[in-house]
Structure formats: structure tokens, C-alpha cells
DNA sequence: AGTCCTTCTTAAAGCTCGTAAGCAACTGAT
DNA sequence: ATCAGTTGCTTACGAGCTTTAAGAAGGACT
């Protein structure tokens, strides 16, 4: 039996591609083994179990997304940076829905900490440097930006915006305008 | 064999409770049958298949959430309404994580249209009446609010905010302040 | 060539969904 | 009150999934 040259990396990569095609939830050990032309049991030499495989895909997705966002951010600041970052995010989700879903996998504290996840908040913080936010508001704004980006993409993906005729791209751009305006005028403990 | 008195409604209800306990993804026909003390095959007399069951739970969750939001909204306007609505949302998600996850299930256009989903955007529109938005911005704002609420709750639930010491409740309240400020000063096609 | 580690296969147990066939219980009509 | 007919449940089963265990085959190294 000729060896198929399976490695954890190639498995993860293939699982990510499979996720984009059939959905992250449908990535199974069996399906992945089929894609490699080996028997399911063979994968267990490279990967602990299905959960392990999923976490690997999640980390891959987070890393790719961080990479893409970093590139988009390079040399930009202010609203330019905000828009580029947000579009990198949304673009990745649209091109790689399976990977994007994977990135939202629940991971334990440890695993999440040594993933690319922290880089995401660091980058968001970098964007905020282009605005004049008090230190105390930094984390709040980071969380709000993350929430809005993720929420928008997430609702768009499950079809939450289908029922209103208005262009989803238009609303996205107006949302970014709104976030920009908000960051330039962040309320200092509002009434 | 004494009849267990299974009905589609009771199944859906039980599935929702089960979802909150073990996670929506882990609600299986088998587990549900166990909870009812019947054999798995018995459920297929009341429910078409697993997908059907999931959709029922999703619709239940959407309806409950709409109900709760409507109650919260009653008699309020402006920022009060915004905050009450948002907290109803987040509160439901925290109390019923499984149901909340179910509410995000992908449904086809038809099914979604006759669920409580449209009521959610209607209520959001109602909130906006307390602010002075141009008609053209309505849908954009509805989408943005939905995105921010859902995104925040969603990221909070997968543990995305664990890595920063700042209180998650604090950030939530500041985010609502920010949204309120934003709605009172919505950019008219900003530069 | 012989040894050893790694990768793969086969085999099997235990779980899942879903269908089919049959029996048991309740319904209503005579 | 008995006797259909309908409905709800069971058993039985096929097919697919995950995971472990044991063994065969590939490749490296002596």
C-alpha cells in the first residue's frame, strides 16, 4: 500500500478546503479520509480525534484571517484602516465560509491564547490609534468593533438580511461610515 | 406499552430545554427520545427528521425572543427602549444559550419569513422611531444594531472577550451608550 | 539483510439517523 | 359492548459516523 503522505498540516489544509465546500459542521474524519484516498482510521496517526482536527482548522482560519487583516492594514490609518480591516474580515468570510465558521469554534482558554486570536484585538487596537479615544474606552471600542463586524458577517451568512430589498453592501458601507463617525465622537459616559 | 403522550409541541419544548443544557448541536433524536423514555424511532411519528426538529426549535426560540423583546420595549422609547431591547436580547442568550444558538440556524427563505424573524426587525425599526433618522438610513441602522447585538452576544458566548480583564458588562453598557450617541448623530453620507 | 519506527489496513464496538413492519392502544361507529 | 380504523409506539434493520486495537507493509538506518 503506497503511502499517501498524510501529515497533520496537509490534513488541516484539506479539512479547511473541505469546510468551505461542504460546511465546517460537515467536515468529518470519514469525508476527509475519502478526500485523501485512505481509510478513516489512518488519520488517527496524525490527529488525535475529530475535535483536535476542528481546533486545527480553527487556528488555521484565525491565522489566515489575521494575516489578511494585517496586510490590509499596512500603511493605512484612520478611516482607511477601519474600512480596509473590516473589508478584509468580510471578504475572508465570504470567500471562506467554512473556515470563517471554524474560526468561531469554542476553544478553551489555553488554546485560544496561543492562537492568532490575540493578534485580532491587537490590530483593532492599532486602528483605534488613528482616533482619539480615552484609554478607558479602548477595550470597549475593540469589543464593539469586533461585535459589529462579526455580527454583520454572521447575520449576512445565515441569510438574516434577505428580507429587506436594500443592498447588503450599501448597508455595510454605511455601517462603516457610522462606526467611523462614532469613533471620532466617542461618548464620554453618556447621558 | 403505555403511551408517552408525545406531541410535536412537547418535543420541541423538550428539545429547547435540552439544547440549553447540552448545546444545540448536541440535541439528537436519540437524546431527545431518552428524555421522553421512548425509542428514537417513535419521534418520527411527530417530526419529519432531525432537520425538522431543529427548525422547530429555531422558530420557538425566535418567537420567545421576540416576545421577550416586545415586553421589554413596551412603554419605552429613545435610549430606554434601545437599552431594554438590547438587554432582553442578551439576557435571553445568557439564560438560554442553546435556544439562542438555534435561533441562528440557517433557514430557507420561506421558513424564515413565517417565523418571528420579521418581528425582530420591526421592533428594531420601532426603536429607531425614537431617533431622528432619515428614511434612507433606517435599514442600515436596523442591520447595524442587529449585527452589534448579535455579534457581541455571540463573541461573548464563545469566550472571545475572556482575554481582557475589563468587565464584559461594562463594555456592553458603553457599547449601548455609543450606539445611542451614534443614532442621535447618524452621519449623512460621511466623509 | 535485519531491525525498528511509522503509516497504513482490517476488524470491530458503539454510537448516530432514518425506514419498514408489526403490535398495542385509543377513537368512534355500529 | 364489540369491532374496525387510525395513531403511537416497538422491534429490527441498513448505512454512516467515530474511535480503538491489532497487524501488515514502507522506509530508514545499521
Short summary:
The structure is a homodimer of 191-residue chains. With 191 residues, the first copy, chain A, is mostly helical.
Structure characterization notes:
The structure is a homodimer of 191-residue chains. By secondary structure, chain A is mainly alpha-helical. Chain A is 68% helix and 0% strand. The first copy, chain A, contains 9 helices and no strands. The first copy, chain A, has helices at 8-22, 29-36, 50-73, 78-95, 97-103, 109-113, 117-128, 135-157, 168-184. In chain A, helix 3 (50-73) crosses helix 5 (97-103) and helix 8 runs antiparallel to helix 9. Chain A is elongated.
Question: Key terms for this structure?
Answer:
homodimer; 191 residues; mainly alpha; 9 helices; DNA-binding
Secondary-structure content class of chain A: mainly alpha
Oligomer: homodimer
User: What order do the SSEs of chain A take from the amino end to the carboxyl end, as H and E?
Assistant: HHHHHHHHH
Q: Termini separation of chain A (Å)? A: 72 Å
Helix content bin of chain A = 55-70%
Number of helices of chain A: 9
The 3D shape of chain A can be described as elongated
Global Rg of chain A: 19 Å
Report on the biggest sheet of chain A.
none
Strand tally of chain A: 0
Low-confidence spans of chain A: none
Average per-residue pLDDT of chain A, rounded, comes to 95
Greatest contact between two chains: A-B, 50 and 50 residues
Give the percentage of residues in beta strands of chain A.
under 5%
